[in-house]
What we know:
The complex is a heterodimer of chains A (112) and B (113).
Chain A: E1 5-7, E2 10-13, E3 19-24, E4 31-37, E5 44-50, E6 53-57, E7 65-68, E8 75-79, E9 88-95, E10 102-103, E11 107-111
Parallel strand pairs in A: 2-11
Antiparallel strand pairs in A: 1-3, 3-8, 4-5, 4-9, 5-6, 7-8, 9-10, 9-11
Chain B: E1 4-7, E2 10-14, E3 19-25, E4 31-37, E5 44-49, E6 55-58, E7 61-65, E8 71-76, E9 85-92, E10 102-103, E11 107-112
Parallel strand pairs in B: 2-11
Antiparallel strand pairs in B: 1-3, 3-8, 4-5, 4-9, 6-7, 7-8, 9-10, 9-11
Amino acid sequence: EPEVTQTPSHQVTQMGQEVILRCVPISNHLYFYWYRQILGQKVEFLVSFYNNEISEKSEIFDDQFSVERPDGSNFTLKIRSTKLEDSAMYFCASKWGGYEQYFGPGTRLTVT
Amino acid sequence: GQQLNQSPQSMFIQEGEDVSMNCTSSSIFNTWLWYKQDPGEGPVLLIALYKAGELTSNGRLTAQFGITRKDSFLNISASIPSDVGIYFCAGQLMTGGADGLTFGKGTHLIIQP
């Protein structure tokens, strides 16, 4: 069964450093998403991406964040200058059309 | 932004018991989804609902999309140990749109031996 994959599973970085989180969405899906989940809290929407551009972004997704689909399979989230409060699980999700979003296993980002 | 109120926050039940949890919103959603999350893993889709009033089952799970489009419930019948986890409701404003999901805070299901 096709699934969303994410790498790395755990990333440790120092405050102020840039990180890139990588995702491979399900192959025939058209919509791509990033969410984050701070430990013990709910999942929060960051950004959606469709037709090679950002469709929607939340207040969390400020100028420090960017997304890219560099080729036909990868979808990345870049955080330019990490802050302590960026520590969270980051989930990639994808969907084919109007319906269900499927989530990857997540990347745990720890900023020290 | 939209808020989803999910209850209860946690449930302590015995194996074999039925479980019920719900989500309410002050805003209308056109799609409701229920996910389960195990520790350290991503949310796994359980049931998706697209029409007001719709009742959908997936094995021992049953979910309904409220007629006002502002609420949904999830029932689990005859709970088993592997049902332990956190259950999240999620709503989407536009079916077919690129907008992100709004999640509830989750219901933590604990099954006592």
